[in-house]
Amino acid sequence: MKINITIHEYNNISQLTAEEQILIRAALDAADHSYSPYSGFSVGAAVLLENKKIITGTNQENAAYPDGLCAERVALFYANSSFPDVPVSCLAVAAKTVSGITDEPVTPCGSCRQALIETENRFSKPLRIIMMGKNKIQSVDSISDLLPLSFDSSYLPKKNL
Q1: What is the C-alpha to C-alpha distance for residues 19 and 34, in angstroms, rounded to an integer?
Q2: CA within 13 Å, CB half, 119
Q3: Domains, in order of start, for the chain
Q4: CA distance 104 to 128
Q5: How far apart are CA 87 and CA 93, in angstroms?
Q6: pLDDT at residue 57 is higher than 60
Q7: What is the pTM of this model?
């Protein structure tokens, strides 16, 4: 088996579409509202719904690790609970430290990737991911590019009806 993944790279935000630029700026702004007193690693995420609404989220830390939650899941779960019938078309993620925007793009963690693949499968539509860094911006056209051998409902036993 051979898995091919395409990752798009951009040198600056102006190479993104106007809609993607708005989304990545929303993620950067959201990072400023992160609750990350323990790590000092502030992450913001912005979800673009098909109805053009933008939902943001931030990482939420807790002294009792691992009870915190990542920005991507905060934004995604809020979007899915507030607009349960509206597909998510894109998610942007950016992180900041005391030094500013991270040099390299931050990718979603494994738990976030699993939540994102569930959303992609739920709506049967690809979910584009944009990851912002100071030195470059990367994107993939589907979360399955970041989680190619994903766990999904096909592994679960069928319900007896």
Answers
A1: 23
A2: 33
A3: 8-147 (3.40.140.10)
A4: 19
A5: 18
A6: yes
A7: 0.93
Let me know how many helices (H) and strands (E) the chain has, helices first: 3, 7
DSSP-assigned states of every residue in 13-31: GGGS-HHHHHHHHHHHHHH
β-pairing, 128-132 vs 88-97, is: parallel
For residues 15-33, give the mean pLDDT.
98
Catalytic residue among 9, 20, 50, 72: 72
**pLDDT class of 66 with cuts at 50, 70, 90:** confident
Average pLDDT for 32-37: 97
Question: Does 125 score more than 60 pLDDT?
Answer: yes
Q: Which helix (H) or strand (E) is 47 found in, with range?
A: strand 42-49
120 is a catalytic site residue: no
Secondary structure letter of residue 147 according to DSSP: S
